[in-house]
Amino acid sequence: MTDPAAAARPPAFLPNWPARLAWLALIVYSFYAASILDVTWERFLLGIENGIRFIGRMFPPDTGTSKLQLLAKGLYESIEMAIIASALGIVLSLPIGLLAARNLMPAWITWPMRLFIALCRSFHQVIIAIIFVKAVGFGALAGILALTVASIGFIGKLFAEAIEEISLKQVEAIRATGAPFMSVIAYGVLPQVLTRFVGFATYQVDSNLRNSNMVGLVGAGGIGGTMFAAFQRFDFDFLLTILLAIIAVIMVSEALQNQIKKLYQ
Amino acid sequence: MTSAGTEIREWQRYTRRERLARFALYFGIVFACVVSLRTVQIIPEFLYDAPEQVADLLQRMWPIEWRYYPKGVHEALIETLHIATLGTILAIIMALPLGMLAAGNVTPNAGLNYFAKLLLVSSRSVNSLVWALLFVAIFGPGALAGTMAIAFRSIGFVGKLFSEALEEARPGPIEALRSCGAPWPSVFIKGYWPQVEPAFWGIALFRWDISVRESAVLGLVGAGGIGMAIDSALNLFQWNRVALMLVVIFSVVLIAEVIVTAIRKRII
Fold it and tell me: What chain B residue is nearest to A40 in terms of C-alpha separation?
């Protein structure tokens, strides 16, 4: 009666039981974690009520002259910190990335370098800033050093990985001509990775510009300190002014970057 | 000897305008660096005693107060991990529909695409610490604010990458499903989802890794987790406890990276 061929054919979409179990486990975990963290519906509703009041107090943004001067000073310092830290980070991560590339350097130098990069990467900028505030005191210098360390961690890692992916044929060709080591680097390695290096560097400039607004939270200079103070004094209208100014700076920088990218295409 | 016809031509790669624009860019970069270096307020006296300060810091950090771990760090650490994980899950739940709305081939409506993209961009352009500040004001200090901060910061990240993965999906299987009359949920589940699933898990794991790092500092503004323990230890100058927490964060971040790489190798 039934066609044996049709009966033997498996269903088109087999149920995937391990995957379904994994989904179930994820859902169970979510409820468990929500109960531990006291994420309840009542708190959420109360929060929305608070939130409406909070947003109400933010408007209109505070544009008093003394506040605007404070804002301009902090923002200017933030931008300066981002520029210096990016320049330092880019210059330093070039040799560090080269030294960490396993296809160019012996193991005794790549391992310490890779460990150094991992150390730079594993802490959040704000935590690094705490250490530098203790080491060099409050102010812009601590922020600059913290952002530089973070830049080395990011650019150094990606740059080393990019170098490890290059084609060794060109390197070998230049070595075969008897070129000294620096010439091998300059003519065999760098031309292959320079565009990617510039890409990582511009990304890091952008991210430094954002993070330079944050390191001030722990006293490392820039607008962050002013922002946190405004928050703690319930100066929410000034907080909104600061947030809008930060967003404006980031948008201007993104527009500038798009122009620069066009220039190089 | 040379005739007028074979004069040496000078070849140039770029037009005069391009060269000028590039020169202006390089000049601008150098100018910005020089101006920043000259006007930034650095107090040199602080710099001179930096080696002493670092030596003092290390001396205060040593010995690391391991005994404090079960009493004051373990619970905060677990809370941090819960904040990161739950925040990422919440973000994924909210980012999936937004990513679908932002992908032009899933939602063929330019207005909706634009709206979803605007939401994703605004989520990304606010730092997670700022999100934490806002949510501490709304929900009060504690883990709930941290979870929401991680979630809202992650929506933009997950949503953007997910919509890009959706846009790269091949139209063949989708057309096949549509042509046999499948309703849109089936088209999504059997047409798009299998194609974007590896990318999706990759994005989710990557974001979880970042969230673990970020959730460790949210406590500095009162949003729960190990950051709050760091904050109180810092305010009391208990540097050997701070050292303990730094070591703990470092190892957790390393373990998270190892886990992510292991799962990634198995899935993708």
Answer: B144
A6-20, A169-183, B91-105, B130-144: least confident range: A6-20
The verdict on residue B250 lying in a domain is yes
Phi-psi label, residue B169: left if phi above 0, alpha if psi -120 to 50, beta otherwise? beta
Q: Phi first, then psi: give them for residue A241, nearest 5 degrees.
A: -55, -45
B216-263 pLDDT tens trace: 888 888 888 888 888 888 888 888 888 888 888 888 888 888 888 888
Lookup: tokens for A99: 């030294």
Please give the interface size between A and B, counted as residue pairs whose CB atoms are below 8 Å apart.
147
Per-residue confidence (pLDDT) for residue A176, from 0 to 100: 92
Task: List the domain range (segments joined by +) for residue A223.
Answer: 78-263
How far A142 CA sits from the closest chain B CA (Å)? 9
- Residue B81, classed as helix, strand or coil, is helix
Q: What is the pLDDT of residues A45-71, one digit of tens each?
A: 877 887 888 788 778 877 778 888 888
What distance in Å separates residue A27's CA from the closest CA in chain B? 9
pLDDT at A6: 56
Average pLDDT over residues A225-236: 84
CATH number, domain at B261?
Answer: 1.10.3720.10
How far apart are the C-alpha atoms of B142 and A224, rounded to whole Å?
A: 21
A127 vs B contacts (CB less than 8 Å) = 216-217, 230, 246, 249
**B122/B120 Cα distance (integer angstroms):** 6
Answer whether residue B226 is part of any domain: yes
Residue to test with chain A: of B94, B130, B260, most A Cβ within 10 A: B130
Q: How confident is the prediction for chain A on average, in pLDDT?
A: 84
Residue A219 resides in a domain: yes
Question: ∠ CA(A183), CA(A188), CA(A193), 5° rounding?
Answer: 120
Total structural domains in chain B?
1
Any domain includes B24:
no
Task: Report chain A residues whose CB lies below 8 A from the CB of B42.
Answer: 139-141
Of B264, B253, B255, nearest in space to B215 by CA: B253
3-class DSSP state of A179: coil
Whether A25 is covered by a domain: the verdict is no
Looking up residue A127, the CATH number of its domain turns out to be 1.10.3720.10
Residue B53 lies in a domain: no
In a domain, A11, yes or no: no
Mean predicted confidence (pLDDT) in A108-127: 87
201-220 in chain A: CB under 8 A from chain B = 210-211, 213-214, 217-218
- How many domains is chain A built from? 1
**ipTM greater than cut 0.85:** no
CA distance B147 to chain A (A): 9
